[in-house]
Design goal:
Chain A contains five helices and eight strands. Chain A is an alpha+beta fold. In chain A, a hairpin with a 4-residue loop joins strand 7 and strand 8. In chain A, helix 3 runs antiparallel to helix 4. Chain A is globular. Chain B is α+β, with helices and mostly antiparallel strands. Helix content of chain B is 24%, strand content 27%. In chain B, the strands form two sheets. Chain B has a seven-stranded antiparallel beta sheet. The relative contact order of chain B is 0.25. The chains are: A alpha+beta, B alpha+beta. Chains A and B meet through helix 3, strand 4, strand 5, strand 6 and strand 7 of A and helix 4 of B.
């Protein structure tokens, strides 16, 4: 399916316009914004598509903020978003990018699927704690909680590896 | 709808967030079936209703409280029962309303149950207001 660039998408996915300046911080912000805009596009049918899980994550968080006006959906905190970005950026090279999913209570799920009955999810809520849930086919189901220190927790990395090995 | 929910009954839940479904898979994500803060997942008993009638149910009874709907997901009650949950008729705000109950206090365990329900569910995505074309049934 072909994709089309979407003008001004940076504002659509919740990127706050950085103030212009010449500092390294301002430059880094501009560069990151450009990258996120480049990573997001719409298909020819108008369906939003992402090539970056971080762009998809930020778009989902923005949508949650908009829907939070109805009361039963909570937007993810900056802490939760920061944890999710940190995890995505620190994934080992063998791990494919996850699909970010916004839960109604502000928790962010990072999901990997490897066909029917094979599922792995890490859920982050900005508290330094990660909940994991895995369905590994004949190897059964696993779930629990572990500490989150910025990268893929070592004690759950094996679940993701087993999911992908099939 | 009268009486207890039967295993072969169709249950529909409304999709409100882009994170609730993935069109490329033609099915909802687990998040569509996660219980709300009250420990229940709201569904409607939609056996014999057309997709348009389900959408109308949502437009009248869900949208005024919870905002615009993106679509709905369909699953048979048997799949919900098979993961150890119950479906209890509620009849409010509509006689077809019911709640999926019996969730664990452990969210990570609930995500596995929700994923199992979502894995074989199908979705109907509503055309955006003003857009040409009918709604799309996927799955």
């Amino acid at each position: 399916m072909t994709t089309l660039a979407l003008p001004q998408l940076g504002t659509r996915i919740g990127w706050r316009e950085p103030s212009e300046g010449t500092s390294s911080v301002a430059r880094a912000l501009r560069e990151k914004r450009v990258k996120i805009v480049q990573d997001a596009a719409r298909s020819a049918t108008g369906e939003r598509r992402f090539t970056s899980p971080i762009a998809e994550l930020l778009a989902g968080a923005k949508e949650s903020r908009e829907l939070s006006q109805y009361g039963d959906i909570v937007a993810p905190t900056e802490g939760a978003i920061g944890e999710a970005i940190s995890l995505i950026e620190s994934l080992p090279a063998w791990a494919p990018p996850p699909t970010p999913i916004m839960e109604h209570d502000g928790t962010i799920g990072l999901e990997w699927e490897a066909g029917p009955g094979r599922f792995f999810l890490l859920a982050l809520d900005g508290t330094g704690r990660a909940e994991y849930s895995a369905i590994l086919g004949v190897e059964g189901e696993h779930y629990g909680t572990t500490n989150f220190t910025g990268g893929l927790p070592a004690d759950v990395e094996a679940f993701l590896a087993r999911l992908l090995q099939g | 709808m009268e009486g207890p929910v039967q295993a072969d009954e169709r249950l529909s839940c409304f999709l409100r967030h882009s994170s609730h479904y993935k069109p490329s898979l033609g099915r909802p994500h687990y998040s569509a079936y996660m219980p709300a803060s009250n420990g229940e997942k709201s569904v409607y008993r939609t056996q014999e209703l057309t997709p348009d009638e389900v959408r109308e149910l949502g437009r009248v009874y869900v949208e005024p409280m919870l905002g615009p709907l993106k679509g709905h997901a369909d699953q048979v009650a048997r799949v919900v029962f098979d993961v150890g949950l119950t479906v209890d008729p509620d009849r409010r705000p509509h006689p077809r309303h019911a709640n999926i109950r019996g969730w664990s206090a452990v969210r990570a365990a609930n995500r596995i149950k929700a994923e199992k329900i979502a894995a074989t569910a199908t979705i109907v995505i509503y055309a955006a207001p003003g857009a040409a074309g009918p709604e799309r049934a996927l799955g």
